[in-house]
Every structure is written in C-alpha cells, then in structure tokens.
Fold:
Amino acid sequence: MLSERDYQDLLDRMQALRSQVSERLSGSLVSNPALAEEINRQLEDLVTAAREADASGPMPPDRGLAELVGVGPEAAQKFGDVKIPQGVVEYDENVNSERVVAVGDLYYIYQHERIGVFKVVQKLKELFEGGAIRLSGGEGAYKLYQFDRRDVLRYTRNDRVAAYRRVLGYGRGLGAGQSRPNTDFHMLFSHFVNQVTLFWRDKRISDVIRERALDPSFGSIAVVRRAGLDLRNNLKFTSYGHLNVLRVEVMQLLEECFGILGSEDVKDLFGAANAWDVVDEVLIRYFDVRLQSSPRQRMAVNGREVLRWLSGNHVMETGRGQFEALLMEIAEPAEEWLTSAQAMSLAKRTGTDRVMPWEQMGQAGVAARYSERSPAQMPPAARAGGPIYPRRNGLGTYRGGQGGVPARPRR
Structure:
C-alpha cells in the first residue's frame, strides 16, 4: 500500500506527463483527435497498472490505522508516511446476458399482446367452438383444437400481465407475486433510445453547423453510456424469477398463434393474404378497434434489438472508435423505435436534453402513456376516476384510456 506522500507524488507525476506529452504533440493533436484519445488511453492504462500493483502488494494487518493515529512502534512520524488505499472495487456494471435478452423477448411479446394477437386467436377459438365460422377439418381448425387442449398447461393471461407489470412496469396493479412494479423502465428505455438517436444526429453534417456544435456534450459517448448503464442496472434487479421460462413458453405460444392465423382455411375465411391481415380483420370485425398493428410491431422488433444490444458488454467500451462501431448496430432500430413510439404518443424526442433527473421519473417528457402508467403516475383527476383526456370524442363523452378505464360522461 502506498504512503500518502507516494500516492500524491504518483498523481503529480502523471499530470506532469500528460502536460508534457500534450505540449510536445500539440500540433498533431489538433489535426488528429484520434491520437489524443490513444495517448489518454495508454496513460490511463499506466495508472490502472500502478493501482493494481499497489492493491496486490502486502498490506498492514490494521490497514495502516496504527500509523495514522500514532500507536505502536510503527507510528508515522509525518503525515506523508501514512498508508492510504486508492479506492474500493468499482461498481459491478456487468449484467447476466441471458436475463437482459429475456427482457427483450418479453418486451416483444408485450407489444404483440397490445396489438391483440392472443385476443384474436381466443376469439377464433370461441367462434370455432360455437360453430359460428366455416371451419371444420382443415389445418387451421385442427390447430385451433390443439391450441385449446394445451391451454391448461400454459401460463394464463393474468400471469403474462403480472410479468409485464413487474419487469416492464406496463399496466396497473402489482407485479407477479405481489412484487413492486418496475415503473422506471419506460422512462429509462426511452431516454436511452433518445440518446442513441441524438448521438447519431450529432454525427451528421447538418447538425454540426448549429449553435449546439460548441456544447461539451455534443456527440458524447459518455452520455449514451450513462443512459445505457442506467437502463441495464434497472433491468438487473427486475429480471430474476420465472421470466426466463415464461418468455420461452409465450414465444412458443406466439408462434403457434401465427401458425393458426396463417393457415390456408383461416385466411380464406377472411379473404386475407397473410396472418397479419387476419389479425386486422378480426380486430375490426369483432372488436371495432382502431388498428395499431404496424407501429406496435415495429416497436416490438426494434425495441428487442436495442435491449439485446445492451445484453452484451458494448456499452462499457471506452474507445470512441470501437464504441461508435458497436453503436452503429442499433442506430437505425433506435430511430425507428422512437418514430413509432412518437406516432403512438408513447414517447417524445427530447431535443437537446441530455440528462434525465431521477426526480422527473414518471412526469412530463419522455413518459409512458396514461393507459400504461401506474396510479401514482397519473394526474389527480385520473386517480380520482375523472376523465383522463381533456378533449371530447364525437359522442359527447370524454374519451377514456386503453388500459381498462371507461369513458365518463361530461359533467
């Protein structure tokens, strides 16, 4: 363990070395910014190596306390002789890759749940059992029969909804096993996507000529990394439990649903060209809903891609060149997710806002839709059962949300 004098001397010598190198290479550093990054990286490696060597060396049994307080034969004569540690182990930013991938799959499933895929298949099953549709012995009819027989073995819809609430914070009530809902997920996820899109927009020539070009946070990988780490750490504590097996089972269920919807006899029944046309037709005919299949499906695909990217250790990369190369993988998915979420009023572009204070969780800004908020995040009028939207629909009543809140008449 270094003494306080040696510790201070090490830091002073490193600062002097940085100053001397920058002075001698000042001309080259201006024309070649990548050279400055490489020099800083190598100097940081020297500091890290010295720190690790010091930590692995012999250490007094009392960690240097006797020297500091002046007790015993090894008492320090001067303050500079006192031993000083260089810090504790850094916060563990690593997350189990499998659990983050599972969250990505659950997000994918949730968006298809909101589209109404499972609701459509359930309706087809009811119509098939009641003899209300012209299905008999075809491929789709047989798969509907098997779908019904396997129903007792699967997680129920309530199980899925509880998992969405616990892991993603969407819906209302408590999560699975009466757990605390993860109400911060949507805010952190939207913030990370916004920072990725801002980073790549800053890279474009059209943004360089703006007044924001002199902003210290312009094109900063540190801002993107911080947003990504906040989201990963949030998922770190909400992705335990039965999430892994649930998402595998429900992904199989989703594939089975599309096997039914894509069967020739089912498509012929509705005059559809593919399974998605069947979904839309059933939703319009039997549920009279406004279709949101396209933006929701793109949010599902691109949101899962972004979360899968976070399952790797890419966000911990410190080199700008390597980080940009890795971040390029989700540049377009992030932009497309944000555009789709904007169309659904589920997120908004934050413009030049780079930091999201913790106190603003669940408030205005990049916020969850009212139908996806917990009661604590809703306005007082909505919590009291009043109208959520301050505008009227064409029927003379205030429009309710899509999360089960009924429309209330105007008072």
Observations:
- The radius of gyration is 28 Å.
- The mean pLDDT is 79.
- Residues 42 and 405 are 58 Å apart (CA to CA).
